[in-house]
Structure formats: C-alpha cells, structure tokens
Amino acid sequence: MIPESRTTTWTRALSRRRRALYLSSPIGLGHAQRDVALADELRKLRPDLEIDWLAQHPVTTVLESRGERIHPMSAELASESAHFAAESSGHDLNAFQAIRRMDEILVANFMVFHDAVTDGEYDLVIGDEAWEVDHFLHENPELKRTAFAWLTDFVGWLPMPEGGEREAYLTADYNAEMIEHIERFPRIRDRAIFVGEPDDIVPDDFGPGMPSIRDWTERHFAFSGYVTGFDPTPLVKRREELRRELGYHADERVVIVTVGGSGVGAALLRRVIASYPEAARRVNGLRMIAVAGPNAESLVSLEGNYNGTASQPILPLDGLRKQFAGTAEVLYAQGSAYVAELPVPVPCTVLHADGSSGESGLKGEYFANPDFSGKPGVVRVDPQIQFNWNAASPAAGIPTRAFAVRWSGTLTPPGPGEYTFGIEQPFCWPCEDKETFRVYLDDRLVMSGAQENRSPAAPQFQEQAGVTRRARANPRPLTPDPLPLR
Asked: At 95, is the secondary structure helix, strand, or coil?
C-alpha cells in the first residue's frame, strides 16, 4: 500500500503573528481578574499580540464576557475547581494534601497543554499557577518549545500542625524537589514573577537544612506588586467621602468580612459571622460588614448541578438575617454579577408587595388549579421569583402539577440605566405547551411565552433613579422547575 501523501506548510518565523498561550488557574476568580488585567497591559505593549486562553470554568466565564479567545482544547481539561470543592470539608481545606491527590488531573491537563502548544506556534506561554505545566516541563525539559513566564503568589509548602511528622517530611520533600528543579534547569522559566511584595512571604524555611523561603524567592523571582485589575488610587483619595456614602461614622470601627471563591467560602463566612457577638463585646461599638459575593440570594448557585429538590432552601442572605435577627440590621444590595452581562435574579430589595410597605418581595397568590378560578389557596409574600418545584408542591394544599401563581407588586430600579427582563424555564418533559407565563409592567403586557419558547425576547427599558413600576407576573400554570425572573 502506498501511504497517503500529506502536504504541510511552513511560515518563516519573522512572518508569523505574535501569539501567546495564557493559562489561568481556576482555583478562585482572583487569578482571572488579574490575568485579564495583565493581558490588557501586554496588548498595550504589543498591539499585534494574539492571546489564546487555555482555561476552564469559572475562568472561562470571565473570559467569554470580555470577548477573549478561548482555545478549543480547553474543553478537554479536567476540572481542578471541582476537585478542590470535593476536598473541602466545611471551612477546612488542606491545600497541600489536595494537590497531592490530584496527580491524574495534573497529568491529563499537561498532556492537553502539550498538544495545544505543539500545534500552536506560540511565542510565549504564560502560566498563572499552572502547576502541571511548570512541574512537568522541569521533569521533561526537552518538551519546552517556547518562552515560559511563571506567575504565582505563594512559594513553597508548609506542614499543618495536625499533619504531624509525616506531613512535615512530605512538604520538605516537595520543596526540595522544586528547588532542585529550578537550580538544575534555570532555562525552563524565562521569567518568574511573584504577584505581591517580599513582605507577603512567610519567614519560614523550606524544611530542615534548606534555605529561607523569603531569601530564596527574592533571588529567583521578580516582584510585581499587587495586580487588582483597577486603579484603587481614586478610592483611597475619596476614603472619607466613601465612608459617609456607606453610612460609616467618622469614629466608627468597621470590620469588612469577605471570603474567596473556593468551596470553603460559605462555611468560613458563617464561622466569622458567628464570632461577631464576642468581637463586639471586646471592641466597643464594633461594626461588622459581611460581603457575601454575587450569589447571596441565588438558588441556582446554591443547588449546583445535580441536586434534589430542597423543601426549604436557605440562601446565604437568609442565613445572615436569621443569625442576626433581633440583634442587628442586615442590609442588602445586589452588587455586580461574576461578570458583566451575566443575568441575575431580580433582587428582593427592588420588589415590594405594596407600594406603601417596607416589606421586600411580591405578593404571591397560589391557586390549586391551572386557570386562576376561585379564591387562592395560599397568599404570601415571596422575596423573589426563583423556585425549584420539581415534583414538589409550591405551598401547603397546592398540588404538585396543576396549579397557577400570580405575583403582584412594585419594582423600583436601584438607579438610572438600561434594564433587561427575562424569564428562564428549565426544560420540562412532557410539559410541552402546558407551562405558560405572562409578565406585565405598568399593567402593560411586556412578555409572554410557553415551554417550547424557553428564552423569549426580553424587553428593555430605560429608567431614572427612584421610579416605581407596577409589576405583575402571571404564569398559567407555573413550571414545576426553577423559574427565576431575570
């Protein structure tokens, strides 16, 4: 047999486009924010630079919102964030042990990287804590094909006290291997950048008989300072003005509590909040502000992907209010979403069941039939329209399938701007056209649809600050799956 002939083309190096492959760690969204800021700066220096991103969720969500180009092989990456979430227990996460138990993920993802860079003709690879790339390039230096820039905000592993002598031995062994890699193959990292300052590095040694972590890092890394993605200078200059806008008194001591985006975040936030009474006892007049993130009242984020139907789901905002009931006022405002253009449920703070009432939410009238006949079986105030009634009754005395709900009240946009409403109905079979809805704004029908049109055209309207609108949502019958009003 005559082998099939193949035609290959070759482009002279100086005629090729400048290209970079950027790897951004998915463990928390801090990497994504700083990496897109670094990418913007690189494009200022090299306007002709093309950047491909080899990344996974949730980093890809940020990148897609900015119109960045995601390498198609990103879909082949094994999930690192899912592994860390599975390793979490309450607010505990042993990062060292979690890394040790993800060898298969690291090997698989390095092979994806290797295939991508082999076919890509890249001038530069940037790895923001791309541990698999850095490790396996040092293990196989002959595989390096182009310049490699390494970024991280921590160096070395330290044992936890409860890990005992074994963990102390293992962390020292990991550190010794890393040091040997760098000393023997300095050509692998063309540039090593520590994101932060020297004072951020712990004053410990890598292990018995090994160098100081700070001294060694200062010899082998350049320090970039902090990369925030925005210029904080105007905020610092307006500090006193901002305090007044936020309602902080001049002599008030305020503690801001926030957590990262990993799976331990919610549990850690609850622990800190629970400590407030003791902290307030020790520091007279102490005020604690908890920042819960963009999913403080998002049912979809609470449930995740595969889930059952919670009879009484407790959202983070619900938990905060319950924790401080009778002792403190919990104020809430929907901040930014994870990324621009990402829909979010209409926050409870802009909905009111009665224009003269201070209670947040909409009046919900629940009928035990699909055509709103007779009197409603249940009348209550629902903070939001986002429910999961999959094979579950929406209220006592209401059947699981043949029912209808009417919500009514007012909607007051938090400020001027353009707002887009949408209805999302998860797929339901064999519901077909039996699930319908209608949405009225100022008693005008603005949107209607059925199951087969799960993403109908969303109306847009301009608003001035403080304008109150009459709102009414009228599904017939309501979907037994989540129906967030967005």
From this structure: helix
348-473 CATH = 2.60.120.260
DSSP one-letter code for 143: G
- Report residue 417: phi and psi, to 5°: 150, -175
Q: Is 316 left (phi over 0), alpha (psi -120 to 50) or beta?
A: alpha
Best CA proximity match to 365, nearest among 472, 214, 226: 472
Question: Phi and psi at residue 398, in whole multiples of 5°?
Answer: -105, 130
Burial of 156 (0-12, 13-18, 19+ CB in 10 A): buried
Locate 121 and state its tokens: 């003709």
Would you kindly state where each structural domain of the chain is located, as residue ranges? 15-223, 233-323, 348-473
- Helix ranges (H only) for 46-142 are 59-65, 80-87, 95-100, 103-120, 131-139
Residue with the two structure tokens 């999913």:
295
Q: By the 8 A CB rule, do 393 and 399 touch?
A: yes
Contacts 24+ apart (CB under 8 A), 162-167: 163/94, 167/96, 167/97
pLDDT, averaged per 10 consecutive residues of the chain (486 residues), comes to 70 86 85 91 95 90 88 92 76 83 94 94 96 97 97 94 93 97 97 96 95 97 90 87 84 81 62 85 85 70 61 76 72 64 75 70 91 93 84 85 88 73 63 71 78 48 48 42 29
Count CB-CB contacts under 10 A for residue 183: 9
CATH of domain 15-223: 3.40.50.2000
Report pTM. Answer: 0.64
